[in-house]
Write a structure and sequence with these properties.
Order of helices and strands: HEHEHEHEHEHEEHEHEHEHEEHEEEEEEH
Oligomer: single chain
Distance between the termini: 60 Å
Number of strands: 18
Shape: globular
Number of domains: 2
Structural class: alpha/beta
CATH topology of the largest domain: TIM Barrel
CATH superfamily of the largest domain: Alanine racemase
Bound molecules: ligand LLP
CATH architecture of the largest domain: Alpha-Beta Barrel
CATH class of the largest domain: Alpha Beta
Number of helices: 12
């Protein structure tokens, strides 16, 4: 049985902490992590949680306690991970498009570094030469992922050094005697088809012989989780099996078996998250019946930004008759969460819950319209605890400098 929070539970939590509210369920994160680790048992695989999905320090600590490492996309995420107690050798920093001084800062903190441009690789060589191992993020020129905005490995993508520039990489590696410890790719998010990972491995295997110090192959994140009934999840068992076969057949240049790394974000924290809102207004019109909740794309941007589907449930009226609604927010521009969605009859004051809200939900929220960011609650062993306060008015003025 999958770990879920019941409607009654969610209502109780909303009543206690108010709305809009993000709620995260520890046992679901654990379930997902155990699913991964058991599927890959017997393979030489390590998981780095892509914490860009959800960085609350309690989530980081909890995921650390499960045994995962952490993947960071900025030096600030690195500092949050250190603050959460991850030792530097369990922290991976995959930079993209950043100034070299941020890489120097990460090096100074002692974490594992992936570099994604020739320019920064050259600077790294000049500064550190052979003294500090480094990984290279490559662009494998593979199209993958749920939609173009979250596809990162194709031949028009800004990410990584294109594999066709391998000769330029090798010039730099040779010039500075760089110690290349890993090759990295991340081709996109919500990858259903495991053959994409296999294609990526083939691309990397062709390059392995160039790097005598290579120890790790980093295949990035991108495992898909279901968002609605009958939706698929990446078949991680099949992936694990295929990876095992592929890696057994490909020892690195020095004859060692390479370790595989993955950087799952959504897979670990998407389904653990519930976003609870309350209905402010119901507006019947000829074209649609609008349900306006006490939120908007300032709190959950995924539907407007990616056309992402989030299942919505009226937990206050689970047995009511079904009706068609457009669920919208209270922001000053179109902020539709769902068009023509069948919901159990909605009344003003009802709680509407958005599912799959753990990954890139709170994390991508903003104060647009000078609204407060939501609070966050962590539920573990049946205990609900607040882990981030809701903003208050002073937060809106905190960094402003009043000069007139
Ligand atoms: N590793 C790297 C280098 C990444 O850039 C990402 C995500 C991941 C791992 C984790 O990917 P995941 O397992 O979560 O799919 N905000 C978008 C998703 C953007 C993902 C960006 N990079 C969304 O809400 O769909």
């Amino acid at each position: 049985m999958s770990a879920v929070l019941s409607r009654e539970n969610l209502i109780r939590i909303a009543q206690e902490f108010g709305t809009p509210l993000y709620v995260y369920h520890a046992e679901k994160i654990k379930e997902q992590y155990e699913k991964l680790s058991s599927a890959f048992e017997g393979t030489n695989t390590v998981f780095f949680y892509a914490c860009k999905a959800l960085t609350n320090v309690n989530i980081l600590r909890y995921i650390k306690s499960l045994g995962a490492n952490v993947d960071c996309s900025s030096v600030n995420e690195v500092k949050l991970a250190l603050h959460a107690g991850f030792p530097p050798q369990r922290i991976l920093y995959t930079s993209n498009g950043i100034a070299f001084d941020e890489i120097e800062e990460a090096q100074n903190l002692g974490v594992i570094i992936n570099i994604d441009s020739l320019s920064n690789l050259e600077k790294f060589g000049q500064k550190f030469g052979h003294s500090y191992p480094v990984g290279i993020r490559l662009r494998p020129n593979i199209m993958a992922g749920g939609n173009l905005k979250i596809s990162t490995g194709h031949d028009k993508s800004k990410f990584g050094v294109p594999v066709d520039q391998i000769h330029l990489i090798l010039d730099i590696v040779k010039k500075y005697n760089l110690r290349i410890s890993d090759l990295h790719i991340h081709t996109g998010s919500e990858i259903k088809d495991v053959s994409v990972f296999l294609k990526g491995i083939e691309v990397l295997f062709d390059l392995v012989h160039h790097f005598k110090d290579l120890e790790f192959i980093d295949l990035g994140g991108g495992f898909k989780v279901p968002h609605k009934q009958d939706d698929v999840e990446t078949d991680i068992h099949s992936l694990a099996k295929k990876i095992k076969q592929a890696f057994a057949a490909h020892p690195n240049a020095a004859g060692k078996t390479l370790q595989v790394w993955f950087e799952p974000g959504k897979f670990l924290v998407s389904e653990c998250g519930y976003f609870i809102t309350r209905v402010n207004v119901i507006k019947e019109t000829a074209g649609a019946c609008f349900v306006s909740v006490d939120s908007g794309f300032n709190h959950l941007i995924r539907p407007m930004f990616y056309d992402a589907y989030h299942h919505i449930e009226n937990v206050s009226n689970p047995h009511g008759p079904e009706k068609k609604y457009s669920v919208v927010g209270n922001i000053c521009e179109t902020d539709t969460f769902a068009w023509d969605r069948m919901l159990k009859e909605v009344r003003e004051g009802d709680y509407l819950v958005f599912y799959n809200a753990g990954a890139y939900g709170f994390e991508m929220s903003s104060n647009f319209n000078s609204r407060f960011k939501p609070a966050e609650v962590f539920v573990k062993d049946g205990n609900a605890q607040i882990i981030r306060k809701r903003d208050v008015f002073e937060d809106l003025l905190r960094n402003q400098i009043e000069v007139i």
